[in-house]
User: Which sequence fits this backbone?
C-alpha cells in the first residue's frame, strides 16, 4: 500500500470515529461542560468539525504559499488564531447531530479531494509550526503529518468528551 492510500485510510478512520462518537453522545449532552473548561460538549463537537477545513487550508498554504504560512505561524498570529478559535467555537449556534455530520462530511470531502490531487513528493513539503500555534504539531511539520493530524485532532477532543461524560459515555 502506498502513502496516499495509507493517508486515505487514516482520514476514513477519523471520519468513522467521528460518526461513532456522534452515535454515542446524545444531543441532550451537548450543553453539558466538557473536560475543556472553556467549552461545552457541543462546542467541542463543533470544533472537531472545523479541523478538516482548517487543516485543508494549512496544507494548501504549505504546498502553494509557504511564505504565507511563515507569516501566519508567528507567536502573535498564533495567539490571535487561538483566541478566534475559542471564540468561534463558543458562538451561539444550533448544534444538532445532523449539522455536525454535514459540517464534518464537507471538510472530509475537501481533504480527500486535496489528497487525491497531490503528488507523493508534495506530501514531504514542510514548514515549522511554533508550539503556540498547535502544540501537538510543534516543530517541522510535513503535509503528510498534517493529514495524519486530522485523526490526532479528533482523538484529543474526543478524549475531552469521554472524560466529561465518564460512565455515561456509551463506547
Assistant:
Amino acid at each position: 500500500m502506498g502513502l496516499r492510500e495509507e493517508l486515505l485510510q487514516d482520514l476514513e478512520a477519523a471520519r468513522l470515529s467521528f460518526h461513532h462518537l456522534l452515535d454515542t453522545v446524545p444531543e441532550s449532552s451537548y450543553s453539558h461542560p466538557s473536560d475543556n473548561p472553556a467549552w461545552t460538549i457541543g462546542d467541542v463537537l463543533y470544533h472537531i468539525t472545523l479541523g478538516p477545513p482548517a487543516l485543508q487550508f494549512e496544507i494548501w498554504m504549505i504546498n502553494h504559499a509557504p511564505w504565507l504560512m511563515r507569516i501566519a505561524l508567528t507567536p502573535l498570529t498564533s495567539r490571535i488564531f487561538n483566541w478566534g478559535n475559542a471564540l468561534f467555537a463558543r458562538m451561539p449556534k444550533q448544534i444538532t447531530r445532523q449539522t455536525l455530520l454535514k459540517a464534518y462530511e464537507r471538510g472530509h470531502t475537501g481533504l480527500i479531494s486535496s489528497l487525491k490531487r497531490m503528488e507523493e513528493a508534495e506530501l514531504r513539503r514542510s514548514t515549522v509550526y511554533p508550539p503556540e500555534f498547535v502544540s501537538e504539531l510543534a516543530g517541522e511539520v510535513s503535509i503528510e503529518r498534517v493529514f495524519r493530524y486530522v485523526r490526532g485532532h479528533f482523538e484529543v477532543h474526543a478524549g475531552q468528551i469521554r472524560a466529561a461524560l465518564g460512565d455515561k459515555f456509551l463506547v
Q: What stands out?
A: The helical segments are 3-24, 41-64, 66-72, 75-89, 97-117, 143-165. The mean pLDDT is 87.
